[in-house]
Each structure stands twice: as structure tokens, then as C-alpha cells.
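ERR on first pass: missing label on line 2. Operator R.T. fixed the label and resubmitted. Corrected input:
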Amino acid sequence: MTQTITTKLRQSSVSHAAIIWGLRVALVLALLGAWLLGTGPAEVSPLILPEMTTVFSSFISMFTDPVIWQAAGVTVWAMLVAFALAAGVGLAVGFIVSRSSMLSATFEPLFAWGYIFPVALLYPLFLIWFGVGVESKIFFAFINAVFPIAFNTVKGLRNIEPRYLKVGQAFGASKTQIDWHIKPGAAWPMILAGLRLGAAMVTINVVLAEVLGAKAGLGYELQQAANTLQIADSYAVILYLIIITAILLGVMERLLRPRHG
Amino acid sequence: MRADSQKQNVRDPALTTEKKTTMQARVRSPAAWSNRSPETRATVYRTLILLAFLVIWEVASGTGLLDARFVSKPSAVLSAIIPLIVDPVVQKALSDTVIAVAVSFLIGSVIGLLLGLALGLSKTLGEAYMPALVMLVGIPKSVFLPLMILIFGLGNEAGIAFGVLLAFLQIAINVVAGVDSIRPQYYSVARAYRSGRVRLFVDVILPGASPGLFAGLWHGIRSAFIGVVIVQMFVSTVGVGYLVRIYTNLFEIDKALAVVILVAVAIILAGTAWGKLEQRLTRWRKVEETRQ
Amino acid sequence: MTSLVVEHLSVSYQTSVGTEISALKDVNLQIEFGEFVTIIGPSGCGKSTLLHAMGGLLKPSSGTISLDTTVLTEPSPRDAAFVFQDYSLFPWKSVIENVGVGLKFAGGSARDIQEKAAAQLEFVGLSQFADRYPSELSGGMQQRVAIARALALEPKFLLMDEPFGALDEQTRRNLGRDLTKILTDTGQGVALITHSLEEAIFWADRIVVMSARPGRILEEIRVEAPRPRDLSYMTTPEFAELRAKIFDLLEFQHA
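pass 2 clean. output:
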């Protein structure tokens, strides 16, 4: 009896998975189909939508192009450094501020304002203040990312569920032990959310800086390709950028994911 | 980031017997500084910090520690604000921006709402496409900027298009989160009372998803604004972003910063007002959360 | 022989609007080592407050809690360890780490903690789940982990706040069956709060019936039947008599 039930369950989960993947494949096919339609019968200008084949050949040839890899290196380096700085400073400042209720009450809104305000608006000013080099890019991304990280860290550490504190108390934890062994664990989901936001901010703003004003990096290559109307190349660079940032974000997610899920 | 209600650290009244003594102290000397509410004190400290920052900036620029041509000074920025507000060029830029933001937000929220509801309410669709949506939100959409310029040209349309792109993704993902958070019991109750589809939507889904909706709308507006402004900074000849770019390039830093300050103040005020509005409309939630 | 003594305990607190609420009024109670005392009373009668006070988790407005002659002013898990109604395990720690939490706070080598925690897990029958996380366990299993956590410090007394409250009937009975074994083996004194009349009688050497707020002890009822008891005890006339008596006491309060 149990055997039929488990086989039935397994079968339904197989067909379920089939539906899910079916839907996804359908979407991809639809997009590719639209692309073919665009370049074919719909006659969309090749300046907007180049032939699929040219984009893919561009993509393949870039894989062995040292210029592209060097640019990718610049971009990835800037993202990693900016995130490390934002996380380091954001977590530290958030932790320190969370220790005192007065500090928290004073600074939490400031961090929130820093997050709400679109720092991107300051970009032209950043360019003349800090130039177009890698440091300027990193600093720009850092400023964008540090606020959500600090804000979420403070919020997480100040809003621990009372029952966990109670358990600590009941089992004889000293104040230091509560601070080091209970609070970080309990606050981690919130802090992690902040780190995710920070990571997104970093990727978005490094690329933004490169596309708008920097002189190196994949964003810059993209700009160049677009400006010289090598549209297929620019599509290919976009694909590389998407893949690379997706990988970076995925790695970060995997490293920081709490084990208990 | 959720605009959650703040939970005090330890609410159990019996555990905070120190409160009694503080209350007595409050009665004894009402005017003492230490007895002002902590929120007021925090606001004062914050204002002092901001003022200190402005003073240091002013002095540093004045004495030449910082090059005033690059960073300007608070006095110059402040004095630039009023003439800017009445300047018709600035007013046009502001209205152009507002219109562009409004249009991209409206289009973006329609698309985002439909997409979010579709993925949130249908388990199959959600399971199939959520990873793609999450990935799209995570990657830097600015990669599409040069393409958008190519497609839409140098006018307002590119800004609106980019704003739509940023906005609808934010709204969609927040709507999904909101719909996800509706407790299954509410569905069962509605079904038990045989509520029709429309009733179910209005009475159960909308309120239940409201935090997600509110967060989504707020992030949507913000994203639309960022999208519009970025394009303006980059290429357009209209709008707030354009102003900042022009003033910066002309080294009229005081004006550029004045525009930035105006925008910052407007956004912060809007954000606080929005938060209060959300709190008012979702008051029933607090009871829910504490009972858990 | 140690005993946990509650003398003239009163607890009152201020509400947010400033009125004073008296939760417990002049409660006197003594629990001997090895004795199983159940506490039952109407909702809001302060039984949870009483247990929290006994665990050092709140400061009484007046009166004392003492272990023999030493007055307890703060939580002392080696003397009286707490088991919460919602288990309150740390979701970010593994099962075995949770069990070792009290030992960790008390200081001690990592190996020592690991050994003792593993032993307790074995005791409650969950050794194979040592490296899992609380979210992967059912309610009944989580409560067992919580009990193991409390027992890890080898306390003289166990304070249990409606430990079966969140569990279904079936799990309750199974857990109850195991608990009987566990608690008779270790032999500490237990104070257990319950709102179930059956549980109150089944477990207890002595049943403490409380009044509505402000909580006082209405009556203490001895249960003579020797422990550990079989489930069949619940069908005896003695059981029915006790049940009727407690029901009366509680109902009388409501009237």
C-alpha cells in the first residue's frame, strides 16, 4: 500500500517538475521567437536588434578576447572591494550603534535617509570630486551600499525577539554572552537582508559608474560598443555583465545563507 | 527593508520594574533634560550632528581647507535655493521630472501589479518564474541604458522607459512577497463563507498583501524616480538630473547641491509621510504581529 | 534534601496606562526534591508569573524565592531550569548546540559540553537529530530538545510552563509517556503548569489549585497513587473524584 502511495507521489512530483521546466523553456522559446521575428519579418532596425547569430558569434569571440577579460577583471574587482568595504563599515557601525538606545534612536533614521535618497543623483558631483578612476567608482558604490547594510544591522540587533533573550536569561547568560552568542544569531536574517541590498547596490552602481563616466571596466566597454554602433558587441557585453553579476550574487548568497534555511 | 513597526526590546512588564522608579523621577522634576522622551532627545542629537557637519563644512571651505570651487559651502548652497525655486527653468525641470516619474510609475505599476499578482497567486507560475524575477531584480539594469538610449533616443521617452523597467520589477517582487505573506487561514475563512472572487480579492487579498503592496509602491516610485533621473543625468536636456549635470559641468556647484538638497528634502518628507500613511492604513497588523 | 521555597510572594506591575495590576498575592509554596507538583488555575491567574518568579526571571514586588536557605534573586539554571511553552529553541543553532546552551553559558570546555549534550540527547531519544536544525523537527521533538536543554545542567528542579500546550493529543500522550520515564529516572523536583485537569492529576504528587487574579493558592491536593502511573490510572474512581473536585474549585472561582 505504501509503495503505491510513494510511487504516486514521486510521479506527481516528476510531472510537477516537468510543468515548471516546461513553462520556463516556453518563456525562453517565446523570447527567442520574438527575437527572430524582430530581425526577420518585423524588420526591426539592426541598430536596435541585431541578428541572433551575430550576437552569439560576438559573444563567443569575446570569450577569448583579453580586452574583455581585463575589463571584466576591473569591474569584478571594483564590485568586490566596494562590497567588502560597505559590509565591513556597515556591519561595524551598525553593531556599535546598536549597543546604545540613544545612538540607535539618533542614527537609525539617518541611515534610513541615506538609503532612501538616490545617491545616484550625486554622480556628476562625484565625478568632479573624485575623478573617473577606479577609486571614485568604488567609493560611489560604497556610499550607496553602506546605508542599507548599517540600517538593517541596527534594526536587526535592536529588535531581537524577546523570547530568545528570555531563554538566554533563564539559562544564566551574562550580558556579554547574550551580546555575542544570542543577538547576532537572532538578528542574522535581518542583517542578511541588508547585505543583499548592499550587494545589489554595489553591482548596480559600479556598472552605472562605468556606463556613465568611467574609463575602464565592462560598463565602459559597453558604452564604447554602443557609441561606435557595434550593437551586436554591446548585446554580447550585456550578456557577460548579466552572467557575471548573477554569478557574484549567487556566490554571496551561498556563502552567507544561514544554515537553518 | 520593511517599514516595520518598531518592537521594543523586552515588553514583559514584570521584567522592567526599573520603569517604576523612572516614572517617579519623572513626577519629581518634569523639566529636567534626562526626562524628555528619548525620541525627542534623539531628534535633537541628530539635528546637532547635522548642524555640526554644516559648520565644519562652512569653516573648511571658508579657510581653504576644502576647495570652495569644488565643494561650495552651506551658506552659498542655502542662498542659492530660493532663487532656484522661483527660476522658471528649474520649475520646468521639476515639473518635467515629476511628470516623467508619474508616467513611468503608472505604467510600471500596472505591469508590476499584474505580474506580481500572477506570480503570487498562481503557485505554478510563481514557482516557474520567481527565480528569473529575483535574478532580474538583482542584476544591474543600468546595463540596458545604452540600448535604451539607442531605442528611445535622447528625449524623455528613454527616461520613462528606464523608469518603467526599474519600477515594474520592484513592484512585482514586492507584490509577490505581499501575497505570499497572506496567512492561509484567511483564504480558508473566505472559502468557508463562500465569498466570491471579487470579494476574496478586495477583502482578503488586498489587505493581506498590503505591506507588500505599500512597500512595492514606495520602492516603485523610488525606482521610477531613479530611472528617470539617471537618464536625465546622462543624456537628456530636461529634468532634475539634467540640472545637476549642467550646473556641475559649469562649476556652479552651489546650484547643483541646492538642487540635490531640494530633492533630498522632498524625498525624505515623502518617505516619512508615506510611512505614516502606511501605518495608519495597516494598524490592524500590529495586533497580528504581537500575538505571534 | 533540597526544597524550593516560595514565601509571601507578591507580584504586581504597572500597565502602560499607569494602573497597577496585582498578578500574585501572598503566595506560599514549597516543593521538595523529587516531588512532582502541578499547578492549575483559570486563565490569567498568574501561574505563569509564579513559575517565572521561581525561575528568577522576574523580580517579585515582595516575598522571596529560596532554595533551602539561599535566596534566589536571578536565574540559577543549575538549581531550577526552565522549559518554555513555545520551546524557544534558537533556530540558528543545531539541535545539539541548543541542548548545550546552558552548559556553554556556564563556561566549560567544548568537549565537555559536547559530551554532556550528547548524553542528554540520547536520554530523550533524539541522538540521530543532533546535527539537524529546530525547524526540521516536529513540535513534540522540539519540546524534547528543550527538555534536554534544561536537564543538561542537572538541575535540582525543573520548571515547566505548559510544556504540552502547543501539542496535539497524540504527541502529548507519547511525550508524556517518555517524560514519565525521564523524570522518574533523574528524580528532580518538578513544577509543571497545565490547563488540563487530566494532566494536572496524572502527573502530580501534589496539585496546586490557584484562584483567579490576583492569584492565590486556593487549595493543595495530594495524589496518593504511586508514580510512575499507567494510563489506566485515568479510568480509576479516585481519578474521577479528584477531577470533579478540581473542576468544582475552578468553577467556583468563575461564579
